[in-house]
Amino acid sequence: VKRVDDDEDAEDDALNSTYESVHVELSVSSEFCDAFTMLKYQLGLVAKRLAPVLFRRFWTALCEELNKHVFVHMVLDHSFSRRGAFQFRYDMETLMSLFRPYTR
């Protein structure tokens, strides 16, 4: 008996391996380059000036707002080709990496 989950797992594995092969060709979308650079710089400044507890509240609230904005204005408003979906995934992984130094 074949489970539906098995098909989904196989499809996920295939997409991940395809993403990994395309991943080496990807770079951050030009539309995000300046924004990501500025965000990284500003996060560093704010981290130095706020107490750790306050900074944690700040960056988690910022992440929540970014998440809403990305979902509403990018995910819901656009359809993506496979390559576009890979690019979007890469860009979002890059965005998440900007916050990684502040996580435990």
What does this protein look like?
- The chain starts with a helix and ends in a 5-residue tail after the last helix.
- Helix 2 (30-49) packs parallel to helix 4 (82-99).
- The protein is built from 4 helices and no strands.
- With 104 residues, the protein is an all-alpha fold.
Round the mean pLDDT to the nearest integer and report it.
83
Q: Distance between termini?
A: 43 Å
Helix content: over 70%
Gross geometry: elongated
Q: How many DSSP-defined strands?
A: 0
Q: Write the element-wise H/E pattern from the N-terminal end onward.
A: HHHH
Number of helices: 4
Approximate strand percentage: under 5%
SSE class = mainly alpha
The unreliable regions are: none
Largest sheet, in brief, is:
none
Query: What is the alpha-carbon Rg in Å?
Result: 17 Å
Features:
4 helices; mainly alpha; single chain; 104 residues; elongated
Question: What is the fold's blueprint, element by element?
Answer:
Elements: H1 4-23, H2 30-49, H3 52-75, H4 82-99
In a few lines, what is going on in this structure?
With 104 residues, the protein is mainly α. It has helices at residues 4-23, 30-49, 52-75, 82-99.
